[in-house]
TrEMBL record:
Matches recorded under SUPFAM superfamilies: Multidrug resistance efflux transporter EmrE
Lineage: superkingdom: Bacteria
Protein name, as recorded: EamA family transporter
Alphabetical list of InterPro entries matching this protein: EamA_dom, EmrE-like
A Pfam family the protein falls into: EamA
Amino acid sequence: MNAPAAQHPVRGILYMMGALALFALLDTISKHLASRHPVAVVVWGRYFAHFLITLAVFLPRHGSELFHTARPGLQVVRGLMLVGTTGAVVMAFQRMPLAEVTALIFVTPFLVTLLAVTFLGEKMAAWRWLPVLAGFSGVLLIARPTGGSLNVGVLFVLAGACCYSVYQVLTRKLSAVDRSVSQLFYTALVGAVTMCVLLPWFWVPDALTTRDWLLIASLGMLAASSHLLMIMALRAAPATTLSPFTYAQLVWATLLGWLVFDDFPDQSSLFGMLIIVVSGIVVAYSERFTRKA
C-alpha cells in the first residue's frame, strides 16, 4: 500500500491544465467522428487504442506491476464510470455544439466538491463556496437555453457529469493505494473490454477510412496522456483545489469549436468565461493563503 501522496497544489494545477487542453482536443476529434459513425464505434476506438498504447508504453517498463491494484473492484467501477461519461458526452456531441456540451458538463466540479467533502474528508471553508458559485453563474451564461423544448442532448450531458464526478472521486481515493500507471491501465482495460462486448451490435464493415483510423489512434494517445495527467494532478492536490481550474477547458473547447466547427461565442459567452476565470483565480489564491495561515 502506498503512503499518502504529498500535497503540491501548484504542480497539481499545472497537471490539470495540461490534461484539460488534451481533453478538449479529444472531444473535438470525437465530435467529428461521431458526426459520421455510430457513437459505440467512436467510444470503442478511443478505448481500444488507449489500451494498446498503454500496454506498448508501460508494460515493458513496469512489467507485472502494471496489473497490481489493491482495490480491483473499485478500479472496475471507476473504469465503467468513465465509459459511461464518454458514451453520454459523445451522444451529446451529435446533438449540440462543442462549447455548449463542455459548459454543461461543468456541473461536475460541484458534484466532485460535494463528494470529496462528504466521502474523502476534504475541508472547504464556507466562504470559499462563493467564487465557485460565481463560476457556475458564468457557466449558465454560456449554456443558456437555445429553444423552447428540452434538448435530449442536455440529459446526456447531465448523465455524463454524474458518472464523471464519481470517476474523479474514485481516482482521488485510489491514488492513495495504487500507482498512477496502474489506474491508467485499468481505465483502458475496462473501457476496451466493455466496448468490445458492445461493438458487434454497431459495427459497419468498411465504414472507417484510413483517415478515420488515424483519428481513432489519436483518440487513444490523447486519452492516455490526458488521464495520466489528471491522475497525477489528483495525487498532487485535493479535488477541492483542482475543481475551479477545470473551467479552463471551456476556453479550449470554445477556441477549437470556432476553428473546427465555425462556432464562435457571443458576448454573453465571453463574459461568462471571464467570470469563470476570475472565480478560479480567487479560489486558487484562497487555497494558497489558507495553507500559509
